[in-house]
Specification:
Keywords: Coiled coil. About 80% of the residues lie in helices and about 0% in strands. The chain is an all-alpha fold and about 150 residues long. It has one domain.
Length: about 150
């Protein structure tokens, strides 16, 4: 066999050299790709930690605010219960005072009538068919002149 043409050999060596350069470039690209992926993963992890930290801080603030609002609701509920209790007591007191004043008025009116009934009426003394009751505090009947 004949020796290959030097131009073909030179062409083949050029292709081999380019193939080697291509493989080296591929390796460098893969290494660069790996470094970029590591940096992306690191940045994503940092971002997630930052977000988680902010979320934790935000959650803590939200929970603190929620506890404050719950405490305020409890205080307001206690105030409402106290006002209701005072209202019920005042209603009972008002009812009791009304009953007392009603009883006093009825007793006074009854006593006023009894005082008026205690004295004999003039027409009862002269015209009535029944005997006039004696005055309170006396034991004798009322006597009128001319009648006995």
């Amino acid at each position: 066999m004949e020796a290959p043409d030097p131009d073909v050999m030179l062409f083949k060596q050029g292709l081999d050299l380019r193939l080697k350069e291509f493989e080296e470039d591929c390796k460098r690209i893969q290494q660069t790709e790996q470094r970029l992926q590591e940096k992306i993963d690191s940045a994503a992890a940092d971002y997630e930690q930052a977000i988680h930290g902010m979320a934790t801080a935000t959650d803590a603030r939200i929970f603190k605010r929620l506890r404050e609002q719950q405490r305020q609701i409890e205080l307001q509920q206690q105030e409402i219960d106290q006002v209701r209790f005072e209202k019920e007591i005042l209603q009972e007191e008002t009812k009791r005072l009304r009953e007392i004043s009603r009883k006093d008025a009825m007793t006074k009116r009854h006593d006023d009538r009894r005082d008026l009934r205690g004295f004999p009426q003039l027409h009862g003394a002269f015209d009535a068919k029944t005997a006039v009751q004696p005055l309170p505090g006396t034991r004798d009947q009322v006597l009128f002149g001319g009648r006995r």
